[in-house]
Amino acid sequence: MHALKTLFRFVSASTLVALAWLALLGFGFARVEPGWIGVRQGNFGGGITARDHPAGLHFAPRGLYTWHELDGRVQLLRFGPQPQGEHERVALDFRTRDNTTAKAECVVGWRVRPGAGHAIVSAGLERNLPQRVAALAEDVLRRELGLLRADDWFQPQRLEQQEQHLLPLLAESLGSLHVEVLGVWLLDAVFSAEYERKLQERQVAWQRELLKESAQRAEKARAEAQEVAKDTEIAESELRAAATRKGKEQLAALEHELAEIAARAEAHEKQAKATAELDYQRSIAQATLELEEAKALASRLRMEVLGGAGGNAWLARQAAQNLKVKSVTLDSRAPGSPSLIDLDAFVGLLLGAASKSAQALSP
Fold this sequence. Notes:
Strands 5, 6, 7, 8 and 9 form a five-stranded mixed beta sheet that branches. Helix 3 packs across helix 4 (156-174) and helix 6 (309-322) crosses helix 7. This protein has helices at residues 2-28, 117-122, 129-145, 156-174, 193-307, 309-322, 343-361, and strands at residues 29-32, 36-42, 56-59, 65-71, 75-79, 88-89, 92-95, 101-112, 179-191. The N and C termini lie far apart (179 Å). The chain has seven helices and nine strands; from the N terminus they run H-E-E-E-E-E-E-E-E-H-H-H-E-H-H-H.
């Protein structure tokens, strides 16, 4: 039971604290939304605080302070057909410099100058600030657009120059409202039906003139192209002739060089053949001489060998091999006749006869 009472007291106290906190937030603080500017005014002295409060929660108890809010976002003031809302106006009626009536469509971008929100509240301009901005901008635009000609609206560069010209004028005029001009854009101009018809005729004539000029330029370009083609053909012929002439000269030079090379090659070949033939004959003569000398040396060596004892024996042997004697009769009664039993005497007889024969043959 005691625990339930304690829990009840805790819940009751928490609820009272939450309610007190919500009441404090609801009555003691002011909330400024993102993109807006808050200005605080004291109800019992102090007046308007010279400070712009950004988005967030700010201390301002109800009854003690009055809270003013200004839209600090970028605003677009549009002049055009079918206006809707406080930031839109009907198209601007104006008369051009060449006395043509028209309706202009344009847009002016502006916003509260940073840090000047409290000045707007102090001047009492916060309730009808968009209307005041539109009125001052309309006066400046109508006055300055009257300096343009009707043809200027069809020239983007001329319109861009006029937009740059309008920026400082609008900034000066709207400066008293503590706002800054971010830009001005001239979109279009609608002229009367009669002028539109005349304009279409002028555009058709202008397009025909452009077409005529284009045809003339095309014809001129065609003529220039033909002239260039002709010059190119002439230049090509000259280049071909020069190339042919140069090629012939180079060919003649090459043929002459080839002829010289062939002549030098032929002379070199003849000289080489003559030198080779002379070397060959010399080699043949030298070989013949050496051969004869070798033959003479062989003959002399043969004679020297044959003149020795071994040569005599060899000659005797050769003679004996070549001797064809069917029978030999020895007279045993002769005193110098060798006995068949004495073989050494018989051989000496034969060798002695061979030696005498060799001596007779030697020079």
